[in-house]
Amino acid sequence: MLEIIFISTLNGILYGMLLFLMASGLTVIFSMMGVLNFAHASFYMLGAFFGFEISRYMGYWPGFVLAPLLVGVIGMGVERYGLRQVHRHGHVAELLFTFGLTFVIQELIEMIWGKLPMNYSAPTALNFPAFEIFAINYPMFKLFGLSVSIAIFVVLLAAVKRSRVGLVVQAALSHPGMVGMLGHNVDRIFMLVFGLGTGLAAVAGVIAGPVLVTQSNMAALLGPILFVVVVVGGLGSLAGAFVASLMIGLLQTFAVACNLSLAGVFGQLGASGALVAYIGDIWTVTVAQLATILPYLLLVLILIFRPRGLMGTRES
Amino acid sequence: MNKAMASLALGLSMLGAAAMPVMAAGVIKIGYVDPLSGDGASVGQIGLNQLDFIADRVNAKGGVLGKKIKIIGYDDQVSPQAALVQVQKAIDDGVHVIVQGNGSSVGLAIENFVTKYNERNPGAGVVYLNYAAIDPIMTNQDCSYWHFAFDANSDMKMAALVNYMKTQPDIKKVFLIDQDYSFGHSVADAAQRMLKAKDPEVQIVGNVFVPLLKVTDFSPYVAQIKASGADTVITGNWGPDLALLIKAAGQAGLRVHWYTYYAALAGGTTAVKQANLADDVFQINEGVNNYDYAPQQAVARAYIDQHKSDTDFYPRLFDMMGMLFEAMTDANSANPVAFVPKLEDMKYKTFSSGAAAYIRKSDHQFIQPLFISVFGPLGANQPFDEEHTGWGWKVVAQIPGEDTVLPTTCAMKRPR
Question: Considering the entire predicted model, what is its pTM?
Answer without folding.
Answer: 0.79
